[in-house]
Hints:
three-stranded antiparallel β-sheet; 16 helices
Amino acid sequence: MTGLLAGLRVVEGSAxxxxxxxxxxxxxxxADVIRFDQVGGGLDHGRWPLSPEGRSLFWAxxxxxxxxxxxxxxxxxxxxxxxxxxxxxxxxxxxxxTNFPARGWLSYERLKARREDLVMVALTGNPxxxxxxxxxxxxxxxxxxxxxxxxxxxxVNSLLPAWDVAxxxxxxxxxxxxxxxxTLTGQGRLVSLSLxxxxxxxxxxLGRIAEAQLDGHDQPKDGNYLYGAFGSDFATREGRRVMxxxxxxxxxxxxxxxxxxxxxxxxxxxxxxHDLETESGRYDARDILAAILRPWFxxxxxxxxxxxxxxxxxxxxxxxxxxxxxxEDPRCSEANPMFAQLHQxxxxxxxxxxxxxxxxxxxxxxVAPAPALGEHTEQVLAEVLGLSPGQIGDLFDxxxxxxxxxxxxx
Amino acid sequence: MTGLLAGLRVVEGSAxxxxxxxxxxxxxxxADVIRFDQVGGGLDHGRWPLSPEGRSLFWAxxxxxxxxxxxxxxxxxxxxxxxxxxxxxxxxxxxxxTNFPARGWLSYERLKARREDLVMVALTGNPxxxxxxxxxxxxxxxxxxxxxxxxxxxxVNSLLPAWDVAxxxxxxxxxxxxxxxxTLTGQGRLVSLSLxxxxxxxxxxLGRIAEAQLDGHDQPKDGNYLYGAFGSDFATREGRRVMxxxxxxxxxxxxxxxxxxxxxxxxxxxxxxHDLETESGRYDARDILAAILRPWFxxxxxxxxxxxxxxxxxxxxxxxxxxxxxxEDPRCSEANPMFAQLHQxxxxxxxxxxxxxxxxxxxxxxVAPAPALGEHTEQVLAEVLGLSPGQIGDLFDxxxxxxxxxxxxx
Lengths: 410, 410
């Protein structure tokens, strides 16, 4: 194993997005990440999207580059095997990342009793340990009520589980920070992270809590306009859509020049008093500016818009469906070294990413497939716990552990 | 300074969300993060949301707990000061996080010449170094075209800059991973991360690239339904909204029991053939299930819904505006130890979060305010570069550096 984090071994007990993503973030940087699941698969083993044959593309996507063991977590002997994996010796081991309930046999106290310097990152829904998922936290965050076209009511959910994504990545930060301190001091640690805290902290970080508190009013829905500067979407002649953003003076002046609206802007500024040299002035004038710009885009096809903006400082981009992303955008193709056509056993061959962190050629990892469920049960039990083939065979016979079970379609 | 990352010193050259968030993620775990800006403030110094007096709540939110120096970055002497800060000696120093163009005087090569073991995390819009912001990358990701009510056309932008959030957190992962390897090997490293890679990698991780590629079709807009399981929003009697999700068998059975729809579900299963014991079956039957559940919610006020679900395994949550979040949700209040009422000089007092990573009482940091621009110019120049009061005074006189300039409103 190569990569920046070679030498680290992380045991992961997980399901769904955040914890698996946290583990994969580390695995794609070279850590040995061992995910354990209930024999037959955990709660996310069949999560959509699915392949045409009904296998989970979600599971395959979020577990790339890990090792998989399947154990019977419902019996004490299976729980004992998990505890032994978590507490196995080694300077880069003793790292546990989980969104399973951290109580009973998986409590920090019980695990720490087996390895004093354990680093455990425990993910929960709420700080009190109660359950919550992205799709129930996001409604509480305020964003869905402020999303969507003007003059509509009702929330608009995001399809992207953005809080799960932030939480998974932050879990990796917490693990690395605690592991660093363990190296310096010899002390392990429990790091706790809740999904609602991740979401509400970010609402605060982005200034939305302070705004609601100090201003005392809520932001109304404002369609696809950018907040506090000029940004809007436009339809092209053939009915495609583009987003155009001017956050900086240079971006604004480039847009004005490229679309030839300088004289119109001067006239508007005189007639309305909006100071178009400021972000706030452009924001206040956004409806007028969008109306002035709209015919320019409506008269051009997407390719013409692109040509007109080449070499200018205009900040813009086309809207793409998922299909258009993979068929039209070279950034999402093998032309981008982050991507490779991956053969995922049991599913097929498709484009898949390594870590977006480009750490230099010598340490870059290839795009690795997800394991089959239980693919490494035997290997891990032998290598990490030192079990003999006879002992492992006995565990298999008793159903306490299982080898790979779903490679049939490979 | 206490905290897990005490002893690390990170120099940050940044604007907007991702790079400042990356630095703040480290600062809130105890790292000494020194943000440098052009005298008078960078491109994000006035970014919305604003306080009633017109100060940036965004800047205050994303720079909490850092030190701030302001220098004239346009003159060689100011650039020399930045290079000296980045390359200053010390085992925990030599760490540079930036989204400024990493070329010329800020290129990795030039900086590495001054400190061989430099760790530099360079953020860009696209992998080729060209510019891109969340609001132009997100349209390309596929998500806005699949978001919004059924039977509507046109994209729906997200108000949350989710890719910026993911990128900032991932930048912290990259810095910690590279710093860890430097400790082990003595070798520094350039870590590059682009916003489009962050977004498109996640599209792949979530299975959306594989789905589009293997299925060959695009996902249509589907309102607020959850994809591939049962999840829907409902209106309550007083017109509030709630989101209800059943990702697991237990969540589904709890919902069925709590709302008393068991008999109706059995009848539907018989009449339609949908297997409501499976996630896919419940997803296929989502319109029918939502229609059956709707009267139950419409007959109850939000508080009654909450009471009915207490102690059940139902996964649900209310929709809240930003105002409702801070006035109705105890998780977003001082009852949650992550939050404190923060006095931010020049702005006022409001609720602000520390890191959502709870690393244990002994290492937890308090919620720290953002610095005034240039608040630490003198301190940092003296402490890190060893400049004398006379030398610093000379830099101030020549406009190459400036002390705090905007504390007037404090």
